[in-house]
C-alpha cells in the first residue's frame, strides 16, 4: 500500500487548475491571457511562446508575438496553423474554446488567476511544465515573501478606511468581492465598499455619491475625467490614481500595484 | 421562359459547387486544391490538413450551405404566406423567441452550453411560432396586417427582454451572446449539421411538393380553395415546417439575418418566372451560395479575428440585389 | 344538380346573415344573384364554395354533400372568383392561367384567352395591364379551372361598358361551349337581364325571388326591397332584353 502510494507520488502527473493532466515539456505554447504571457516572459520561457491573445502587450517582446485574436473568441484556424503543443487558457474563458481545442486534438491547460496566491502558484506550475522548475519555484518564493512583507505592517490597525476600486471609467466598473484587487485592499488594511458583490459589477455613477467611501482608487487606462475627479473630491472622498498597467492583471506587475494600493491606504491613514 | 429557368438553375447549381470548394479552400491556412480533392475522394493527406478539413472546414462549410439554403427557402414561403415582400423567416417573432431561449441558456450557465443554447433556442423559436399561430386561427389570416403587427410586436418585446438579460451578464457572456446574435459558424455546434442538414433538405423537398399550393395561396383564399387547397390547413402546415427549418438552422448558427429576406428576391430577379417550384429551387441555391461565400470571406479577410457571416452576407447581398433591380429597370418596363 | 338545402349562412351564430336558403341550379344555367349591398351575396357564394361553413343545412351536388367530397373533387365541381384578386408579386398572364390549368390542357388556356378577349396577352405582365385587362385576366384564370360550377362575385365592377359587354359575351360563350353553370353576383342589373336564365334575389335575410329575370324584376317583393319599379322591353338596337328602372310612385 505504501509502495503504491509512493509510486503514485513519484509518478504524480502534473495537473492544471481543473484537474486535467498536463504532459510536461511542451515546446510551442500559446497564451490566451496577457497575465500568463507576462509570467512566461518573467520565467524566461518566451522562446517557447509562439502565439498570444490580443492585449498581450507586456513586455515589449510580447507585442512581437503572433496574435490569435481575443481570448473570448480566438481564431481557431490560426491556432491550428501554428501547431502548438500546449495552449494556456484562463479559467474564466468560454467553454467553447476547450471543446474546440479538444476536437482539434490540441492540448491545453486551464489556469485560475483570481487570487494573489494563484499568481505564485501558476508561475510554479508553468515552471514545472515547461522545464524551468527552479525559476518557477524561485518566483513563487519571492512573490510570497514580498507580499508578506508588504502586508505585515497593516494587519493590526484600528480603523479600516472604506475604499472603492474603480477599474473602468465608462461604463463604471468596480472591483467587487472575490477579486485580487479586493484581496489586496483587505490585506492593506482597507475595506472594499463593494465586497458584497462578487466579480466586477457595473455600477451607476450615482453610487459614487451615496456609497460614501473614504478613498477612491482610479485605475482606468483612459484619462480620468477631471470633472469626475472634482466631483468625487467634493464629496469628500480622497482620490488616488493608480497605474492601470500595474493593477489590471493578475501578473508579476501586480506586486508593484499592491505596493501602490498599500501606500495609498497608508497615506490616507497617516493624513487623518 | 422555361429555358431561362433551367439555365439559371443550372448556373446556380454550378455556383454552389464552386462555392463549396472555395469555402473548403479559404481560411488562414492554405490548403492546396490537391489536398482538398484527395480528402474528398477518401485518399490520405497530411494529418494536419485532414484535421483542419475534417474538424473545422467541412462541418462549417456544410453548415453555412444548408442553413443558407433553408433560410432562402423559408424566406420565399414566408413572403408568399404573408403576402409581403419584406417578410423573412424571423418576421413573426421567431427571432425573438430563439434569442430569448439562447440568452437564457447563457445567463443561467446551463452546461454544456453546446447543448443547452441550441436546445433552448429551438424551444423559444417554436414557442413563439405557436403563440403567433394560435392567435391567427380565428378569422385573422396570416397575411392580415393585424397578424404581422402582432408578430413584429412579439419580436420587439422579446428582443427587449433579451437586451435586458444581456445587460446584466458578465463581459465574457456578453461577448458570447453578441456573437450568437450576429450569427456564427465555426463553433462546436457545426458538426450537428450531419443530422440537421439532411433534415432541412427533407423539409425542402416537402416544401417543393407544396409549390402548387403556394402558387394557389398566392392568389388568395378563395382561389386557393377553388384550386383544391384548404387555405387554413396549408398555411398552418407551411408555417410550421418553415418554423422547424428556421429553428434547426438557428440552433447551429445563431441568428443569421438578411439571407432569408434577400435570396427569394434575387431568385425572382434572376428567374423572371413566378412559378414557386422554380423560385424555390433558385432560392435554396441562392441562399446557400450567399451564406457560404459570406462565411468563407468572414474568416479569411482578417487574420486574427472573424467577421460574422451575417454581416458579410448583407454587405455582398444588398449591392447584388440593387444591381439586379436597377439592371432590370433599363430593360423591362415598369416593375 | 347544385342544391342548397335549408342553408343558414353567417360567420357565427350570433350574426345569421341568411336564413332558410333553398335554391337549386341546373347544368349550363347562368344564374344571377342580386341583392342590395350587405344582403349577403358574397357570403352566400363563399358558403356555397365552402370557404365558410354553413351554420346549418348543406350544399349538395347531385345529391352528394360537398362536405363529403375531397378537396380536389370539390375544386373540379365548384370554383369562385372574387372581385378583388391581386397577387403582390408579378407574373405573366400565361403564368396566371397555368396555375389553374391543373390538367395541363393547352386547349383550355386557348379557350380562356379567347373568351376573355386576351389573345396575344400571354407574355404580358399583369402589373402592366389596365384594370379592365387585369379583371379579364383573372376571369380567364377562373375559367381555366373549368369546374362544373363557376361562381363570380361582382365580375362587372370597374369595367367600362365595352369591357362589360365582352365579359357578358365571354361568359355566355364559355357556357355554350362547356355547359358550365355560372352564378353571378352583380349590381349591374341591365346585364343580369341580358344573359341570365334565372335570377335569385336576396332581401331581409332570405330568398325573396327565384325565377326567370323578367318575373323577378317585376315581382312585388323585389320591388319593395329594392325600392324600384321595373319595365322590360326589347332593346331596339340589338333585340336583347332591356331593363328600365324607375323610382316607385309614392
Describe this structure in words.
- The complex is a heterotrimer of chains A (272), B (335) and C (250).
- Chain A is 43% helix and 14% strand.
- Chain A is α/β, with parallel strands linked by helices and 272 residues long.
- Chain A folds into two domains: 2-148, Nitrogenase molybdenum iron protein domain (Rossmann fold); 158-271, Rossmann fold (3-Layer(aba) Sandwich).
- In chain A, strands 7, 8, 9, 10 and 11 form a five-stranded mixed beta sheet that branches. Chain A has a four-stranded parallel beta sheet with strand order 4-3-5-6, sandwiched between helices.
- In chain A, helix 10 (226-234) links the parallel strand 10 (215-218) and strand 11 (238-241).
- In chain A, helix 6 (116-130) packs antiparallel against helix 7 and helix 8 (180-187) crosses helix 12 (254-271).
- Chain A is globular, with a radius of gyration of 21 Å.
- The model of chain A has no long low-confidence stretch (mean pLDDT 85).
- With 335 residues, chain B is mainly alpha-helical.
- Chain B has one domain (2-327): ABC transporter involved in vitamin B12 uptake, BtuC (Orthogonal Bundle), CATH 1.10.3470.
- Chain B has 14 helices and no strands.
- Chain B has helices at residues 2-25, 33-40, 47-81, 94-107, 113-135, 145-167, 171-182, 193-209, 211-217, 221-226, 231-253, 259-271, 276-300, 309-331.
- The longest helix of chain B has 35 residues, at 47-81.
- The two termini of chain B are 18 Å apart.
- The mean pLDDT of chain B is 87.
- Chain C has 250 residues and is of the alpha/beta class.
- Chain C is 34% helix and 30% strand.
- Chain C is built from nine helices and twelve strands.
- Chain C has helices at 41-49, 71-77, 93-100, 106-115, 131-144, 161-178, 189-195, 213-218, 220-226, and strands spanning 2-12, 15-25, 30-34, 56-61, 64-65, 78-81, 149-153, 181-185, 198-203, 206-211, 228-234, 241-247.
- In chain C, the strands form three sheets. In chain C, strands 6-7-8-3-9-10 form a six-stranded mixed beta sheet, with helices on both faces. A four-stranded antiparallel beta sheet of chain C has the order 2-1-4-5, covered by helices on one side. In chain C, strands 11-12 form a two-stranded antiparallel ribbon.
- In chain C, strand 7 (149-153), helix 6 (161-178) and strand 8 (181-185) form a beta-alpha-beta unit.
- In chain C, helix 3 runs parallel beside helix 5 (131-144) and helix 4 (106-115) packs antiparallel against helix 6 (161-178).
- The B-C interface holds B 1, 79-80, 83-85, 139, 212, 215-216, 218-223, 225-231, 268, 273-275, 333-335 and C 11, 46, 49-51, 71-72, 74-76, 78-82, 85, 87-92, 95, 98-100, 102, 125, 127-128, 141-142, 145, 147.
Amino acid at each position: 500500500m505504501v509502495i503504491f502510494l509512493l509510486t503514485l507520488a513519484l509518478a504524480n502527473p502534473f495537473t492544471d487548475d481543473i484537474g486535467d493532466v498536463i504532459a510536461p515539456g511542451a515546446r510551442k505554447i500559446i497564451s490566451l491571457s496577457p497575465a500568463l504571457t507576462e509570467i512566461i516572459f518573467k520565467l524566461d520561457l518566451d522562446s517557447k511562446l509562439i502565439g498570444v491573445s490580443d492585449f498581450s502587450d507586456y513586455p515589449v517582446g510580447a507585442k512581437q508575438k503572433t496574435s490569435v485574436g481575443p481570448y473570448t473568441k480566438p481564431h481557431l484556424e490560426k491556432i491550428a496553423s501554428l501547431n502548438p503543443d500546449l495552449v494556456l487558457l484562463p479559467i474564466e474563458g468560454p467553454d467553447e474554446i476547450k471543446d474546440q481545442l479538444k476536437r482539434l486534438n490540441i492540448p491545453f491547460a486551464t489556469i485560475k488567476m483570481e487570487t494573489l496566491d494563484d499568481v505564485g502558484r501558476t508561475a510554479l506550475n508553468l515552471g514545472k511544465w515547461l522545464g524551468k522548475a527552479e525559476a518557477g519555484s524561485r518566483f513563487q518564493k519571492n512573490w510570497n515573501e514580498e507580499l508578506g512583507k508588504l502586508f505585515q505592517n497593516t494587519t493590526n490597525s484600528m480603523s479600516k478606511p472604506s475604499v472603492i476600486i474603480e477599474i473602468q471609467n465608462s461604463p463604471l466598473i468596480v472591483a467587487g468581492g472575490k477579486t485580487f484587487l479586493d484581496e489586496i485592499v483587505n490585506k492593506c488594511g482597507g475595506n472594499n465598499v463593494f465586497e458584497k458583490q462578487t466579480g466586477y459589477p457595473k455600477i451607476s455613477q450615482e453610487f459614487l455619491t451615496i456609497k460614501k467611501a473614504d478613498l477612491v482608487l482610479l485605475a482606468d487606462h483612459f484619462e480620468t475625467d477631471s470633472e469626475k475627479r472634482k466631483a468625487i473630491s467634493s464629496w469628500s472622498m480622497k482620490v488616488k490614481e493608480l497605474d492601470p498597467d500595474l493593477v489590471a492583471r493578475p501578473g508579476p506587475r501586480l506586486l508593484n500595484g499592491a505596493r501602490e494600493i498599500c501606500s495609498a491606504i497608508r497615506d490616507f491613514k497617516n493624513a487623518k | 421562359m422555361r429555358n431561362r429557368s433551367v439555365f439559371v438553375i443550372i448556373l446556380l447549381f454550378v455556383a454552389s459547387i464552386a462555392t463549396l470548394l472555395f469555402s473548403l479552400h479559404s481560411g488562414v491556412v492554405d490548403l492546396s486544391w490537391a489536398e482538398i480533392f484527395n480528402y474528398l475522394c477518401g485518399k490520405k493527406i497530411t494529418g494536419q490538413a485532414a484535421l483542419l478539413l475534417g474538424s473545422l472546414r467541412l462541418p462549417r462549410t456544410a453548415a453555412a450551405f444548408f442553413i443558407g439554403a433553408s433560410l432562402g427557402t423559408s424566406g420565399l414561403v414566408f413572403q408568399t404566406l404573408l403576402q409581403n415582400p419584406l417578410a423573412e423567416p424571423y418576421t413573426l417573432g421567431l427571432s425573438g423567441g430563439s434569442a430569448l431561449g439562447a440568452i437564457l441558456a447563457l445567463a443561467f450557465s446551463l452546461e454544456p452550453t453546446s447543448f443547452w443554447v441550441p436546445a433552448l433556442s429551438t424551444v423559444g423559436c417554436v414557442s413563439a411560432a405557436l403563440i403567433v399561430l394560435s392567435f391567427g386561427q380565428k378569422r385573422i389570416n396570416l397575411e392580415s396586417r393585424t397578424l404581422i403587427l402582432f408578430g413584429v410586436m412579439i419580436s420587439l418585446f422579446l428582443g427587449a427582454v433579451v437586451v435586458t438579460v444581456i445587460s446584466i451578464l458578465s463581459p465574457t457572456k456578453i461577448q458570447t451572446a453578441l456573437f450568437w446574435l450576429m450569427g456564427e459558424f465555426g463553433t462546436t455546434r457545426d458538426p450537428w449539421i450531419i443530422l440537421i442538414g439532411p433534415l432541412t433538405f427533407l423539409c425542402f423537398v416537402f416544401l417543393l411538393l407544396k409549390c402548387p399550393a403556394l402558387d394557389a395561396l398566392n392568389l388568395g383564399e378563395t382561389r386557393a380553395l377553388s384550386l383544391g387547397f384548404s387555405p387554413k390547413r396549408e398555411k398552418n402546415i407551411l408555417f410550421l415546417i418553415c418554423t422547424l427549418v428556421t429553428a434547426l438552422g438557428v440552433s447551429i448558427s445563431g441568428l443569421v439575418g438578411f439571407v432569408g429576406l434577400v435570396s427569394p428576391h434575387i431568385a425572382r430577379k434572376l428567374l423572371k418566372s413566378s412559378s414557386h417550384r422554380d423560385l424555390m429551387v433558385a432560392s435554396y441555391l441562392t441562399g446557400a451560395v450567399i451564406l457560404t461565400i459570406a462565411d468563407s470571406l468572414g474568416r479569411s479577410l482578417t487574420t486574427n479575428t472573424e467577421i460574422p457571416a451575417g454581416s458579410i452576407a448583407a454587405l455582398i447581398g444588398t449591392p447584388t440585389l440593387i444591381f439586379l433591380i436597377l439592371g432590370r429597370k433599363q430593360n423591362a418596363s415598369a416593375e | 344538380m347544385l342544391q342548397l338545402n335549408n342553408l343558414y349562412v353567417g360567420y357565427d351564430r350570433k350574426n345569421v346573415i341568411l336564413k332558410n336558403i333553398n335554391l337549386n341550379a341546373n347544368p349550363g344555367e347562368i344564374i344571377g344573384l342580386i341583392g342590395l349591398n350587405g344582403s349577403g351575396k358574397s357570403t352566400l357564394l363563399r358558403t356555397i364554395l365552402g370557404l365558410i361553413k354553413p351554420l346549418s343545412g348543406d350544399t349538395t351536388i347531385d345529391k352528394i354533400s360537398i362536405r363529403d367530397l375531397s378537396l380536389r373533387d370539390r375544386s373540379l365541381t365548384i370554383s369562385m372568383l372574387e372581385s378583388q384578386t391581386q397577387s403582390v408579386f408579378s407574373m405573366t398572364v400565361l403564368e396566371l392561367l397555368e396555375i389553374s390549368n391543373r390538367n395541363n390542357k393547352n386547349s383550355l388556356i386557348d379557350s380562356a384567352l379567347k373568351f376573355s378577349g386576351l389573345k396575344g396577352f400571354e407574355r404580358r405582365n399583369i402589373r402592366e395591364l389596365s384594370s379592365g385587362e387585369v379583371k379579364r385576366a383573372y376571369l380567364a384564370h377562373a375559367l381555366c379551372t373549368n369546374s362544373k360550377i363557376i361562381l363570380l362575385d361582382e365580375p362587372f365592377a370597374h369595367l367600362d361598358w365595352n369591357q362589360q359587354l365582352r365579359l357578358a359575351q365571354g361568359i355566355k360563350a364559355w357556357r355554350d361551349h362547356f355547359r358550365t353553370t355560372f352564378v353571378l353576383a352583380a349590381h349591374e342589373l341591365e346585364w343580369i337581364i341580358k344573359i341570365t336564365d334565372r335570377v335569385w334575389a336576396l332581401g331581409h335575410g332570405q330568398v325573396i325571388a327565384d325565377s326567370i329575370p323578367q318575373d323577378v324584376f317585376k315581382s312585388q317583393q323585389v320591388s319593395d326591397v329594392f325600392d324600384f319599379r321595373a319595365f322590360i322591353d326589347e332593346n331596339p338596337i340589338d333585340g336583347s332584353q332591356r331593363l328600365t328602372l324607375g323610382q316607385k310612385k309614392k
